[in-house]
Specification:
single chain, alpha+beta, Nuclear Transport Factor 2, Chain: A, ten-stranded antiparallel beta sheet, 22 strands, 28% helix
Length: 440
């Protein structure tokens, strides 16, 4: 009524006398409504936030100490039962959840909730899902979907809603020393010592500047490796960075230590702080064998004549990736008579390398293209004059062909004097790890 009365007064001839009070009352009314809405909004927000936190993180607003925190977690675990399921071929996520009394509507809501994180149609046999049941009601209150050893997707029940939150379970990192000897091949010997295949390939890449694992390895060679292993709940769940390597190849000791300098650059260095990243890789292929060596007089299997073979032939399956052994610019790419599909790379004023018999070139390459060391430039084939799939690899120095296996490449760079103290301390630590392993 007061508002109507004020408006009626404002319509009268005495407008100046009632304009200011009218505006004051309108402002007070709008301000009151706004404050009330903000208070209601935050009450709802804090209440829903407490519900989620108390369910997912087991922390209630009243908890003020770690004792309360662990007691709350213990109580939650005591009042709930965990059942672990594994996906098998032909069994869907829907069927698993339906077996615990969840309705079709609930399962649809769960699927919609986790869709931004994971597509349930892509579950694989053996994948784990944990179902948490309330011991009193028997209802599902939490679902934990294990996406990988590093990631778990908990889905928390909040009434009829299901709230996902991607987490990374805690893991323990333990540096581990592994040593062994080469009996037949380094790969098999390392596998026998429990080194995963991906770590073996990483070791070969680290030492690729000094050891050609295709031809240099001999029975009796020895290796010592320090690497990080990840553990969760007492089980090894994976491997991390290789920290140090000592490889004795044909009585020559090759060492590498992983180090990050003061400029934030990480890499592998020898004992003297020299980078293991050389100007040239020892081999343009990772999986192959040498079928023909550099020679001044070789019998050509197709032409049936003796002539110089200023290349190395690496026999490998068709499609095997071929890498540039150093950074440079492509000076020729195309068909070159007996070499078939051929690439020549000019690295500097001194060196050029050639690669022949490709099945195809890597996409996007052309004359003048720049390539980096380790870039894939093509794939093994049998184009041109060839008796089977292989790579013809050559190196020329100042226009004269040289044996690629005899090139001694200098280090790319070495550590600054300011970083040497920390690096030397790291070397001592790795020595202690190796020594402890041998004496234990």
């Amino acid at each position: 009524m007061s508002t109507i009365f004020i408006k009626s007064l404002c319509r009268s001839k005495k407008k100046p006398s009632c304009t200011l009070p009218s505006l004051r009352w309108d402002r007070i009314f709008l301000l009151s409504i706004t404050i009330a809405m903000i208070v209601v909004f935050f009450l709802i927000l804090f209440r829903s936030g407490d519900d989620i936190a108390a369910t997912e993180e087991f922390i209630a607003p009243s908890l003020v100490s770690y004792s309360d925190y662990f007691e709350s977690r213990q109580n939650w675990s005591f009042n709930h039962k965990r059942i672990r399921e594994r996906f098998v071929k032909g069994k869907t996520f829907y069927e698993i959840l339906a077996g615990y009394g969840l309705s079709a509507l609930h399962i649809i809501r769960i699927d919609e909730a986790i869709r931004p994180f994971f597509n349930m149609s892509k579950t694989r046999p053996g994948q784990i899902v944990d179902i948490w049941l309330n011991k009193k009601s028997g209802k599902v209150e939490k679902i934990s979907l294990h996406l990988s050893p590093e990631k778990t997707l908990p889905i928390i029940r909040n009434g009829d809603d299901f709230l996902p939150s991607l987490t990374s379970p805690l893991k323990i990192t333990i540096p581990t020393a592994i040593s062994g000897g080469v009996s037949n091949s380094f790969y098999q010997s390392a596998i026998d010592r429990g080194i995963p295949s991906e770590v073996i390939m990483e070791i070969a890449d680290i030492l690729a500047w000094d050891i050609d694992f295709l031809v240099d390895i001999r029975p009796g060679d020895t290796f010592q490796v320090v690497l990080n292993r990840y553990y969760r709940q007492g089980k090894c769940i994976g491997h991390g960075k290789v920290l140090a390597i000592r490889f004795v190849n044909q009585k020559r000791v090759h060492e590498s230590f992983y180090f990050t300098d003061s400029k934030g650059r990480s890499g592998y260095y020898d004992r003297k702080g020299r980078s293991l990243r050389k100007a040239f890789l020892k081999s343009p292929l990772r999986y192959s064998r040498i079928s023909s060596y550099f020679s001044s007089r070789r019998f050509h299997p197709i032409l049936k004549i003796y002539r110089p073979h200023h290349d190395i032939d690496y026999a490998a399956p068709t499609g095997t990736p071929v890498e540039s052994v150093a950074r440079g610019r492509i000076s020729f790419i195309g068909w070159k008579s007996g070499y078939g599909r051929y690439i020549r790379i000019r690295h500097n004023h001194r060196y050029q390398t050639g690669y022949g018999h490709f099945s195809k070139f890597a996409k996007g390459l052309k004359k003048g293209s720049r390539v980096r060391q380790g870039d894939v430039i093509g794939y093994v084939g049998s184009s041109g004059l060839s008796t089977g799939p292989h790579l013809d690899f050559s190196v020329s120095e100042r226009g004269r062909f040289v044996d690629p296996l005899r090139i001694k490449s200098p280090p790319a760079f070495r550590l600054d004097r300011a970083d040497r103290k920390r690096f030397n301390e790291l070397v001592v630590q790795m020595e202690e790890v190796w020594q402890k392993y041998h004496t234990s």
